[in-house]
Write a structure and sequence with these properties.
alpha/beta, Immunoglobulin-like, Rossmann fold, 3 domains, six-stranded mixed β-sheet, five-stranded antiparallel β-sheet, 13 helices
Length: 449
């Protein structure tokens, strides 16, 4: 393990130097203090040299090893262990302060930390534990730790930095996936409907006895006619269907100026969450991005494909650069060789009508397209303020009228696309995950694919 040492003056050396300089200034005016000044210098210099010798040549410089998980979840606490070992030098420093150079994308309040030297004297090694919280997705890198060793007389400090490298990744946080809980809730509150275990999909699964609440349309009259109870009455048999599997889903996410960071993070989490559900349903999932990052992850089936999606998308971020949904769909058409459910996540506006009108008819013939757009909360607040004011200025009135016209044109465009047969989902970034999952489940049940 490589290390480097830097000797720096301590507080006692600064204090002693200032005292000696002040005494020298006093000697300039009071000659009788000159012997005292000489004696003070003669006494301080050996102490400074002896203190330096103890710290630099005899004191233990310690060494450290770090234990940290290589994978972390955004916003979830990560526990780190530093194993601090003594070396062969006979003397411990008078005090030891510890620093660990954690990444800037993580937050921690444990440093500087003062080590318990009594425990280190009684043991060859001790364990220092602390916690930190990853605040951003992406790869991370540790380069520390660092010891600040104090000399016995506090004249010197030795900064010892060890090259203990740790690398890892911070992924989006999905507690519900790790716990394996069932997804359920109310869509109007931004929650998720329960995934039905038996439904009215397109693929026939089996026959079963009729249960109260089953639709009459599910009754198989031919099978019912062959089954009678002991008393001679008919025993109703219904067809059990399962949602159609072995379909293909392509997610396309805008990493350009249309989706700011908080919108983009919500969209990416929704993509990964829905990918997990789609893979559990037996569908193949592909992912793509356009704008600041041109990314393509080919379609794969099985839960092993989820790791590839996570590793390909976990460090993706948006940047303020131009992006073209038209080019993204054009590239997708050249790569898709079978009918797919395409989910394009961006923020569509009135100017997208002309550019997309050239390619939407081609997509409708071969694929099913869902356009996901985010609600403009700032424009909605301006157009529909929570409190009505009767004393608006002309500027406020014009601003509200412009916001209302902008929102009306957006909704008119979305209705036009819906009338042409496209699927359009407009939602807030807080509820995009539940809204997107509910849309996927309704598409699966409807048989549109």
């Amino acid at each position: 393990m490589n290390s480097r040492s830097i000797l720096i003056p301590g507080k006692a050396l600064f204090t002693a130097s200032l005292f000696y300089m002040a005494l020298g200034c006093a000697v300039f005016f009071i000659d009788i203090l000159f012997p005292l000044w000489i004696l003070a210098g003669a006494g301080l210099l050996p102490l400074i040299i002896i203190d330096f010798t103890f710290l630099f040549l005899l004191c233990d410089r310690l060494r450290a090893e770090r234990e940290i998980p290589s994978s972390a979840a955004q916003g979830e606490t990560v526990h780190v262990k530093l194993f601090i070992h003594r070396t062969d030098r006979p003397i411990l420093p008078s005090r030891v302060r510890l620093y660990d150079f954690f990444p800037g994308a993580m937050s921690c309040r444990s440093f500087p930390a003062k080590l318990d030297l009594s425990a280190l004297r009684n043991n060859k090694s001790i364990v220092f534990e602390y916690s930190l919280t990853p605040e951003d997705r992406g790869p991370w890198f540790f380069s520390g730790p660092e010891f600040l060793l104090g000399s016995p007389l506090f004249f010197w400090q030795l900064r010892v930095t060890h090259s203990v490298i740790s690398r890892g990744r911070t992924y989006p946080n999905f507690k519900q996936l790790a716990q394996g809980t069932e997804l359920k809730g109310k869509p109007e509150k931004g929650e998720i409907r329960q995934i039905r275990k038996r439904g009215q999909g397109l693929e026939f699964e089996s026959l079963r006895d009729y249960q109260r609440g089953d639709s009459i349309k599910l009754i198989d009259w031919r099978a019912t006619s062959r089954n009678r109870r002991l008393d001679g009455s008919l025993k109703l048999i219904v067809r059990n269907y399962q949602e159609e599997q072995d379909q293909q889903i392509l997610f396309i996410i805008d990493s350009g100026y249309r989706l700011p960071d908080h919108y983009f993070d919500s969209a990416l989490e929704a993509m990964l969450l829905l990918s997990f559900i789609a893979l559990k349903h037996g569908d193949a999932v592909a992912a793509s991005s356009f704008g600041s990052h041109d990314l393509w992850i080919p379609p794969r089936k099985g839960m092993s494909a989820y790791n590839a999606l996570m590793n390909g998308l976990y460090d993706l971020h948006s940047e303020p650069v131009p992006s073209s949904p038209f080019l993204a769909l054009e590239n997708a058409l050249t790569r898709l060789h079978r009918r797919s459910f395409i989910v394009l996540i961006s923020n569509f506006r009135e100017e997208d009508d002309k550019s997309l009108s050239w390619i939407l008819p081609r997509i409708e013939k071969r694929h099913l397209l869902l356009l996901v757009s985010f609600r403009e909360s700032e424009a909605e607040t301006i157009a529909f303020p929570p409190e009505v004011s009767h004393n608006k200025t002309d500027e406020e009135t014009l601003k509200a009228a412009a916001a209302f016209s902008y929102l009306a044109n957006r909704r008119r465009l979305y209705r036009k696309w819906e009338h042409s047969g496209l699927l359009v989902l407009e939602t807030s970034h807080h509820h995009v995950s539940s809204a997107l999952i509910n849309k996927y489940l309704s598409v699966k049940r409807s048989g549109k694919l």
